[in-house]
Structures are given as C-alpha cells and as structure tokens.
Amino acid sequence: MTTSKTWLIVGLGNPGTTYAGTRHNIGASAVDEMVKSLGEKLTKHKRAKAEVAETRLAGAKIILAKPQSYMNESGNPVAGLLNYFDLAADQLVVLHDELDIPAAALRVKFGGGDNGHNGLKSIRASIGSGDFYRVRMGIGRPMGEQDPADFVLKQFSSAEKTQLPAMFDRTAKLIEVLISSGLAAAQNEFHGEGE
Predict the structure, then answer these.
(1) Order of strands, sheet of 60-67, starting from the edge strand that comes earlier in the sequence
(2) Given Cys at both, which of 17, 45, 75, 132 links 123, Cβ 3.0 to 4.6 Å?
(3) Whether pTM exceeds 0.90
(4) 24 catalytic, yes or no?
C-alpha cells in the first residue's frame, strides 16, 4: 500500500452539546482526540457542512473531518469533502459506534453493509458506494430491555469513560497502521485488543 495518497478520516456523530460524549458520537470524539494529539485544530469547511483539519500521518496527507449534520444526514458532508478534495471512496475511513462488538474493542474492514447504522447508510447513498473503510468502535449492547436506539444516545458510564483515552489512542494507531501497511496488517494487530 502506498502512503503517498490522501486519506479522508471521518468521525461520525451528532452536532451540539446535547449529544457530546454520547456513545453514538464516539467516532467524532476519536477525531477530536486525533486532532488534539497531532497539534492541529478543526475549522469550518467552506463548501461542506463539516469541520476539518489537514495534516500528515505515516507519510500521507490526511484530512480529519466531523460532519456538522445529524448522523442520518452524514452522507452529504462526506460526499462534499470527497468531491472537494477529489478523493475516491477507497480513500475514505469512517469511524463509527458499533453495538455488535464489545465495549472498547476495535474492528476495521473495507466495504460491507451498514448493519442498520444510519450514518453509514447515508454515506453509502450519497457517495453511491459502500467501498470505503470502516473503523468499528465497540460500545457494547444495552443490558436488559433497553432500546438500542436509546442506549446509543446515552452518556458513557464513569467506568466506561476510564477506557476511552486508551481506545482513542488505539484508534489513532490503527489508522496509522492502515495507512502505512494496509488493511490486513491493521486487522492482525488490532482485532482482539480491548476485549
């Protein structure tokens, strides 16, 4: 895999203070942490409804982005950024919450279905392809009878919050390995961690 191409790294979430720190916003929170750790700052993009920071990682140019639309409308900002930066779908990495893997675990894959995730569904519809990378960030499943739709919009518990810094650090390292060494290397190194 060449590190010379440009990558668009998008963290999904809902805008505004009401949703800040919720499980559904973990992708956006991961982008915030990457931006901070790389010494960058997010700014409003002039053409897409998103905040972006341009920098370099593993020898490649990366654009870190957070759509400023609601989750189920993430596709338009992502399509706008791909178009603006003249990038293909396979240069896109989407960070998103995942109910079907344990809390704090990470999985990365290329392509596949949206598994009921409205943000992924919107992106697929807007860019006309599902052929992009997804970093699935485990938030676990709700206990008992709680509706998953309510669960994802809740804040993390105090115990869960203690796991987040390490998870964000592993997410940034996973992206670095994906860019520098490819999908198989990232899967080999990170699948199974955090469980």
Answers:
(1) 43-44, 50-57, 60-67, 7-11, 92-98, 133-138, 106-110
(2) 75
(3) yes
(4) yes
pLDDT digits (tens, 9 = 90+) for 97-106: 999 899 999 9
Neighbours of 98 (CB within 10 A): 22
Q: What residues does 27 pair with on adjacent strands?
A: none
Of all helices (H) and strands (E), which one includes residue 133? strand 133-138
Residues 6+ apart with CB under 8 A from 15: 67, 68, 69, 70
- What is the percentage of the chain residues whose pLDDT exceeds 70? 96
Q: Tell me, what's the pLDDT at 141?
A: 86
Stated length of the chain: 195
| CA 38 – CA 46 distance, rounded (Å) | 22
Task: Assign 4 a pLDDT band (cuts: 50, 70, 90).
Answer: low
What SS3 state is found at 160? helix
Catalytic residue among 24, 45, 96, 117: 24
The 10s digit of each residue's pLDDT in 55-80 is 999 999 999 999 999 999 999 999 99
Alpha carbon distance 57, 158 (integer Å): 32
